[in-house]
Specification:
Blueprint: E1 4-7, E2 22-26, H1 31-40, E3 46-48, H2 52-57, E4 64-69, E5 72-73, E6 96-99, H3 103-109, E7 115-119, H4 124-134, E8 138-142, H5 151-164, H6 173-185, H7 189-193, H8 197-204, H9 208-214, E9 224-227, E10 230-233
Parallel strand pairs: 1-8, 2-7, 2-8, 3-6, 4-6
Antiparallel strand pairs: 4-5, 9-10
The structure holds D-malate.
D-malate binds at residues 27, 29-31, 68, 71, 81, 100-103, 143, 202.
């Protein structure tokens, strides 16, 4: 039986061997939730990049460019990191380059894996089905916050572990911790997260609707997969 492991921060990735495995990069609030939403609403592909100037350079090639730093849209970019920005009819059919404080870093740092997927509560079931079918070891790479642990990405890892129970072994300590945390939190994710640092940060920016949206499970039936430099919807 394959296993599911959890890496609580991209800074811990040097301790993990991703070779032969599937990495699932997750930044629930809000980068990977926005990416899943963007692809669901007709963005054709996404270039997830680490630096602001690298992202801006895509504009010359006709891309929409999106950037967030410390929860706020960066100056000079078309879009920020709210999932609601990507539900507008005007984005349909466009391609997107995106850089965020933590999420796009986690995706790029996961490249040693055989495959890099993007996960969020919004596409939890689709990710679970995809990895069950692939039947390979999985590592959930939590984006965290600037190298630190965060609760919301850990809760996603626990939710995925629950969906994979019986198909994957859950016996890594990090997975068990995430699994049990999710059992405690799942009846009221928003309430559980209300004191968490990023929810407080986003509340100060008055974006509670973003948080509520990102904590919904199984809204979209798609899995973004990294192919070369771009995230595309994986074929079923
Ligand atoms: C990130 O990548 O750090 C986040 O998505 C930040 C945010 O937009 O809240």
């Amino acid at each position: 039986m394959p296993s599911i492991d959890v890496c609580f921060s991209p800074d811990l990735l040097p301790l993990y061997n991703l070779k032969g495995k599937i990495a699932i990069a997750v930044d629930v609030l809000r980068a990977t939730s926005s990416m899943v939403t963007a692809l669901a609403h007709g963005i054709t592909h996404i270039a997830p990049v680490r630096q602001l100037d690298e992202c801006l350079a895509y504009k010359e090639q006709g891309y929409l460019v999106a950037a967030e730093r410390d929860g706020v849209k960066a100056d000079g970019f078309d879009l920020g990191n709210s999932p609601f920005h990507y539900q507008e009819e005007s984005v349909r059919g466009k391609f997107l380059a995106m850089t965020t404080t933590n999420g796009t870093q986690a995706i790029q740092l996961s490249r040693a894996a055989d495959e890099v997927l993007v996960g969020a509560f919004l596409n939890l079931g689709a990710v679970a089905d995809y990895v069950k079918k692939a039947n390979k070891d999985v590592v959930v790479v939590c984006a965290g916050w600037k190298g630190l642990f965060n609760l919301e990405d850990t809760l996603f890892a626990g939710a995925l572990a629950e969906r994979l129970e019986g198909h994957f072994t859950l016996d890594h300590d990090a997975t068990l911790a995430a699994y049990h945390l999710y059992q405690t939190a799942k009846a009221d994710l928003l309430g559980f997260l209300s004191k968490s640092s990023h929810v407080q940060r986003l509340e100060r920016l008055h974006i509670l609707p973003d948080i509520e949206f990102c904590l919904q499970e199984d809204v979209y039936d798609l899995v973004p997969v990294l192919q070369g430099d771009f995230l595309l919807i994986a074929q079923k």
